[in-house]
Each structure stands twice: as structure tokens, then as C-alpha cells.
Amino acid sequence: MIPVIDFSKLDGEQRAEALAQIANGCEEWGFFQLANHGIAEELLERVKKVCSECYRLREKSFRESNPVRSFNELVDGETEGGVGKRLSDVDWEDVFVLQDGMPWPSNPPEFKETMKEFRDELKKLAEKVMEVMDENLGLENGCIRKAFSANGKHQPFFGTKVSHYPPCPRPDLVDGLRAHTDAGGVILLFQDDEVGGLQILKDGQWIDVQPVKNSIVINTGDQIEVLSNGRYKSVWHRVLATPDGNRRSIASFYNPSLKATIAPATKLLSAESDRVPASYPKFVFGDYMDVYVKQKFLPKQPRFEAVAAAM
Ligand SMILES: O=C(O)CCC(=O)C(=O)O
Ligand SMILES: [Fe+2]
Question: Is 239 in the pocket of ligand 1 (CB under 6 A)?
Fold first, then answer.
């Protein structure tokens, strides 16, 4: 089971224990869930409502989308005696993205206001989690955030992906979302209360990220792996399609600015008198994203090699 950590302990007598649990979540799992994270249940309930409503309004366009077309062609081919081959280039999901300065859905009418409130809360939570990582890694407070903002010169990127994974009649033929590691920094996932499907790869085995009502799942992307010089590895994950149930999942990405330079934190490269070698290159995050968009579903190592060569 993915660790579930009581985040409120951080502000009390059990702070040391909470810090240790988060360190373990980062080092051993790459994924953990936060309970008592401080975001009001009442807000979370409103978020679920407006996102599900928004999906209902988009449902027709999903039925006419690329993945559904490819899937139907595959199934039709099978009935005619063709050999069923899994779809490897599409995901069985309906997605839209929320970002500052871009248009957002205006229906239902409460959508914008609710999601703005939610994203503000999540962003604060991400920054708190990053400070815990600073502390656990022995970095000065605010170090990761500073790296992500190019020393305060640029805004870090904060984007939210609202996804639905509609029921799929043949989950053997397509994934909800193909396996990948995340490109960026800290990811905060508000997943469905009941419908599972998200799995992480740990020690060669796929493990379910069990739904825990109103918790926030945290995971770390490729940039935290680089900054921590490999102490916090970004972990492979995927979403399985399911024949019944419509899974709602809202992923928010706290990433470096595209202009930020990312490298292993200097402090982690010198332990006492010994120099520790950097296991990752230094690069501009925007260059990394150029590679990532083409190689998202492939191993990360060649991505690091590609950006290293570009510097
Ligand atoms: O929808 C999910 O549960 C996971 C989404 C995800 O992994 C991603 O968007 O990178
Ligand atoms: Fe992901």
C-alpha cells in the first residue's frame, strides 16, 4: 500500500515522525498520500461536483474523439477475424488543462471560481511539501522553489489537468494513460474516491494507488530527481482502463519555469570533505520539455542525455 501520511502532524509534537514518513515516501516510493492536508472538505466536494458536471457537458466530444475512433476500428477489425493488438499510441481519457492566462470552461457557472480557489490551495500545499523536501534533503529552506523560479526571476509553472477515464468495454486493448514518469517537479493528484486504476511500478511490480477519500496524492517528477541528485527518483506510473466506473482525477503540476536552469543542488555534491559526483547534467527546463513531449512514454535516461548534449 502507498503510504498515507497525516500532514497535520507536521505542525505538532509529532513533527519529526511526519518528516521521517515523508522522507521515506520520497526515497522509497516516489508516491505518497496526504491526509489532513488542510484543504477544506467543503471545497473538495465542490471541486468534484464542478469537474464531473464539466465532463458531462463534454461527454459527446469524447465519444467522437481519436482514441474512441481507433478503439472502435480495432474492435471492428477483430470481429472480422483480425488479431487484437493493444493500442500503443492513444490513452482512454478525456482531458483539459487549466493554466493562468488561458481560457477556462465557463460551464457550469461555478467552475472557474471553484477551481481557482482549489488551485490556490494546492499551490500553497505544494510549496509546503517542497519545504519539507528541502529540510529532509538538508538544503536551505526555499531552495527547490528558488531553483524552480530561476532565483525569483520567473514564475514557476503551475498547471492543472482535469481528467476523466470513462468506462472502457475492452480494457485489455488500451490503457487509461500509458506508463510514464512525470517531467516536472511536484505533482498533486486529487483522485476519484472510489474508482481506482492508478498504479506505480515498484521493485518490478505494479502497485495500486488505493483511493483514499479526500486525500491528496503527491509524487515527484524528473526535476526533483535531478535536484536531489537521484535521492528522490521519479517513478513510473500508469492508469488502467476499467470496464465500469468513470474515474475522475485532477492532477496539478508545480514545475520549474521553462527558463529555469536545473542541476543537482550544489550542497548535495559536497559531503564534508568528499566531493560527490553529479549523477545528472545541468540544463534549461524548457529544453527538457522539448525532449519530453516527444519521449514522454519512454525511459527518462535518454532524455537527460539529450539535454546534456545540448548544453
Ligand atoms: O490521472 C491520474 O491519476 C494520473 C495522471 C498522470 O499521471 C499525469 O497526468 O501525469
Ligand atoms: Fe503522471
Answer: yes
3-state secondary structure of 4: strand
Distance 177 CA to ligand 1 centre (A): 7
Closest alpha carbon to 231 in 114, 165, 133: 133
Task: Report the alpha-carbon distance of residue 274 to residue 137 in Å, rounded.
Answer: 17
Helical ranges in the chain per DSSP H? 15-24, 41-63, 66-79, 111-137, 143-148, 222-227, 285-295, 301-310
- Does pTM top 0.90 for this prediction? yes
Ligand 2 geometric centre to CA of 140 (Å): 28
| 6-49 residue pLDDT tens | 999 999 999 999 999 999 999 999 999 999 999 999 999 999 99
- For atom 9 of ligand 1, which residue has the closest CA? 251
From the CA of 192, the nearest ligand is 1
Angle, helices 301-310 vs 285-295, to 10°: value is 140
Which domains are assigned to the chain?
Answer: 4-66+86-310 (2.60.120.330)
The three cell numbers locating residue 114: 471553484
